[in-house]
Every structure is written in structure tokens, then in C-alpha cells.
Amino acid sequence: MQLSENLRSLALKGLHYFQTYDLLMLMAMITLGYISWMVFLVLHVLQAYTLLPGDIFRKEEAVRQKSNTGKAQLCGCLFMAVVSVLLFLERSPPLYHAYFAMTIFLWTQILNEYKFIKALWRYLRGRESDYVIKLLALGVVSVIILELLVHSFTERKLYTWCFLIVGAIASIYLYKSIPWRSGIPVFVCLTCWFLSLFTLMPAEIPDNNKLVNASGVMVIVIGLTGKWLDLKAGVNRFWFGICNHEKRQPRFPMLFQLQALLVGLSSVMVFLSTSHRTVKQELHTIHQLMNWFIAGFSMILPLFSENGLLSRLNSIFLGFAPPFLLLSIGYEAVFYGALGLVLIAWILFENSLLYVRKVNKSSASGKNLGEHAFLENDTRYLQLSDMRIPLTFMVLFNVAFFGTGNFASIASFEISSVYSQTELLPIAALSDGRTPHLQVIHTIPACYVSFSNLKEICAFSAITKLLEVPRIGCYFLVILCSDVMTVHFFFLVKNTGSWMEIGNSISHFGIMSAQVVFVLLLFALTNIYTKDIEIRSGSRDSRKVM
User: Fold this and answer.
1) What is each CA distance from 473 to 162, 480, 492, 494, in whole angstroms?
2) CA-CA distance, 31 to 204, in Å (whole number)?
3) Which whole-number Å values give the CA distances from 393 to 408, 480, 492, 508, in the listed order?
4) Which residue range(s) make up the domain with 410?
5) At how many degrees (to 10) do helices 129-152 and 158-177 cross?
6) What CA–CA distance (Å, rounded) separates 368 from 370?
7) Which of 93, 473, 479, 484 is a Cys-bridge partner for 49, taking CB atoms 3.0 to 4.6 Å apart?
């Protein structure tokens, strides 16, 4: 028995040694790959979307940079050839070659920008200490926010504290900048506090059909309020630019009524689905076809709405509501409305800051009228303060995953909860009592999370148009933030412990790795809805108005 125990111990140690033989090398190479990718993104954003001393970077060093580029590429190719030979002699898997090749390629591209990096360092050394302090403070705050998002994967209540604090700070800041009677500071505070309640609720959503039906009424009321504000609040200077001020006849006068009707029909269909599921009756084919029609047709209607910012976002809010309601079983339907209110609060906050900034510039004797240079597509260059846009988006994007449950724990989905959702949505064709496949179980929560994320990216795109910042540049910053979180999750992956711990650690890393591609696909989809949004006052025109 003693010999058997010793043999088992030696076998486990040998297995561990075999599995971790290349661990240090692979972790180092993958980490260097992520770091090189993030550095490359920063350099690209600085060169393409920021207003740095262009004469230093583009004129004086353009000729010398070409020769250095060739040298860097030659060194990179030689180094890659040596590494490939060594990996081939070691009989390493093809994936090892891919890791090394990508990392070496990215670092070669970074070395190509040696002159730019050197000039940038001189530029920073020549700036005042206040600018460097602001830059360091921005970096520290960004890392803290991203680390909080990392920990939120295991502790949903962090979002509660986040929205409570942000709601209070944002309302106080607005109160000092704009009149309190405008109602915007109070609205921002209340919406953030309302959204903070959902991450205190249990991750296992209880079945509550009445709450889903009430959520449909809530969505219609929010849409009706948005429609009224779009028509009446335009005279308010703090709503300037986001309302529809055209007095012409709308293209489709009955569009809002049709969207509200579809939201009401989706609530009725949820009630009928629940009634059939309660008595274990099979859903009729006509019932399934109606759900398909309501979910699909409602998402097409926002394309025919007016192209004002508030009117288009209000139509998108109503258009994505029916499929979300059809997938809901409880309080997550209320979460959809709460998240929509917070997105409107974010737009109002940015619009108020924009108005205050323009007033301050107009009262500065006109000396700063030419401060912002513009890119070719009439968007201004990015500034340090614009980092708040991708950071805010990251918080809202991730709260969509955790506001209605622990989406990050793929291995711990409750079958009964998801089964209820598949029966509530008869288009899944699982109302006959059969046990749904695991792929379907994981697809259903991802579907209604996607509807929330689509709405957020539409708001994100609208804000970039409102502030005239480059949308692609902000997207690159979103990728940068996602990569910082991905590196953290990479070091948190476990290969020991319970299957739940191992599965969750891998799920967290996988979700963050896929988030970059997921966001890119959603950006491409939401561009269909937001590409023709028109802002009443651009920064150039607004100077004439002010």
C-alpha cells in the first residue's frame, strides 16, 4: 500500500511536470503578445486620432524613419527565422509558432515607430508638470475602473456601489454647471440609483409573469415620454442638439403608435405562453409565428424613424423591447427599461457638458475658437478627457451581463431558469417538454444580453456623433480596455481545484477574449441604425449660434 501511494504521488508529480513544462515560456510569450498589441493600439490612436506636434513627427523625421523601418523589419525577420528553427528542432506544436510569430511581428511594428516614440518622450518632458500629472491620474483611474470590472465577475454588488457613487457625483457636478431646475441633475441621479438595485437581486430570476407585463407598460410610458420630450423640450438649451426640431411632416406619422402596439402585443404573448406552460399545453403554430413576426418586425421599424438623435434612440429602445420581453421571465424586463433610462442620462450628461464648454469658449473673447482641429470626416481629435467615453461604455456593457444574473459563470446556469425562458419564447420550439440542448441553454441568455448591448452601442455611437469624436478611435480605446482586463483574467485561469472553479476561470478569460470580436460585430450591426443620425449643432455651426 505504501509503494502504491508513492507510485500515485510520483505519477501526479510527473503529470504536473509534463503539463507545465512549457508553462513559463507560453505565459511569457502570450503576455508579451498582449502588451505589444496594447502598445501598438496606443501608438496608432496617438498618431491617427490625436493632435500632437505633427511637424516634429511628420516633417523632420519622415526620411530617416523610412530607413529605420527597413532595419527593424530585417531584424524582426531574422529573429523570427531563428525562433522558428529552434521551435522546429524542439518539435513544438504549430500553435507555438503562431504565438511567437504574432508577438515578434507586433514588436517589429512598434520598433518601426522608434522615432515617433522618441519624439513623444521629448514632447512629454517638455510639457508642464500639470499635464503629466493629469496623464498619470487618468491612467490610474482607468486601471482602477478596469480592475473593479474584473472583480465584478465574481461580485455583482460592486455595480451597486458604482452606480450609487457615480449618480451622486454626476448630479453634484451638473448642479454646479447647469441650473437645478433643468431637471437633468436629478434625473441622472435617480436613474443611476434605480439601476443599482438590480445587482442586489438574486442571480436566479424567479418567475413573475405580472412583472413582465408591467414592464411592457413601463417601456411604453418611457417611449411616450421620450416622444413628448423630442417634440417639446427642444426650446430648452440643455436639450439643444438631441431633439427633433424639424417642423416638417414625419415620414411615417404612425410609427410610434405601431411600435407601442408591438410592445403591448409582446406582453400579451408572454402571458399566453406562460398560461400554456403552466398547464403543460403545446403552443400552437400560429402562436409561434406571431412571436417570430413581432420579434423580427419590431427590430426593423427603427430604420424608418426620424434621424434626430433622441427620436432615433427612442425608436431603437421601442424596437428592441418586444424580443427582450419575449425572452423575459421576471425582473430582467424591468432592467431593460432601467438601462434605457441610464443611457439617456448619459447622453444628457454629455450634452450638458458640451453646452457648458461652448458657453465658456464663447465668453473667452474668442481666443479659443480655433482650438479644436478636425479630421477629414469632420470629427475632432481625441483629448485626454475623452477617455471617459470608452470607460463608461465598458461599465455599461458589462453591467448588461450582470444586471440580470451571473452571465460570466457559464458553467453554473440553472437549467430550470433557462428552460422557462425557452418555453416563454415558443420560436425555440421547445414547448413539447423535451430537455433543451446545452447549446440552446447558453444561447438564450446571450440573446437577451445582446439586445441590451445593441442598445448601448447605439447610444455610444450617438454620443460620438454628438461630441464629434472619431467613433473608430473610441472603439480602439474600448479594445485597449478589454485587453487590460483579458490579461488579468489570463493570470487568474486555474488548472487545480473544483471543476466549478476551473470552469469559471476559463469562462471569464474566454468571455473577455471574445468580447473584442463581439463588440466589433455589434458595432457593424448598430451602424445600420445610427449612421444617418443628425445632430442639430456641430461645434463649428454652434460657434455661430453662440
Assistant:
1) 26, 11, 29, 34
2) 36
3) 18, 13, 24, 19
4) 146-360+377-531
5) 140
6) 5
7) 473
Same domain, 158 and 286: yes
520: which residues sit within 8 A by CB, 6+ positions away?
475
Successive 10-residue mean pLDDT values, the chain, 546 residues: 93 87 88 93 88 56 53 85 89 89 92 84 82 90 93 88 92 84 87 90 74 88 88 68 65 87 88 70 75 88 87 90 83 86 91 83 54 63 89 90 63 44 42 42 53 79 87 91 92 84 86 84 86 65 35
As given in the structure block, the three cell numbers for residue 259 are 411600435
Q: Could you tell me which residues are beta bridge partners of residue 374?
A: 380
Strand partners, 476: none
pTM: 0.84
Shared domain check, 178 and 120: no
Distance from CA of residue 541 to its chain's centroid? Answer: 30
Same domain flag for 45 and 163: no
Over residues 374-402, the pLDDT tens digits come to 666 667 888 888 999 999 999 998 888 77
Q: Which three cell numbers stand for residue 361?
A: 469658449
Q: The C-alpha cell of 513 is what?
A: 477574449
Q: What cell does 539 get?
A: 461645434
Total domains present in the chain = 2
Rounded CA-CA distance 116/471 in Å is 24
Grid cell 445587482 in the structure block, residue: 199
Residue 63 lies in a domain: no
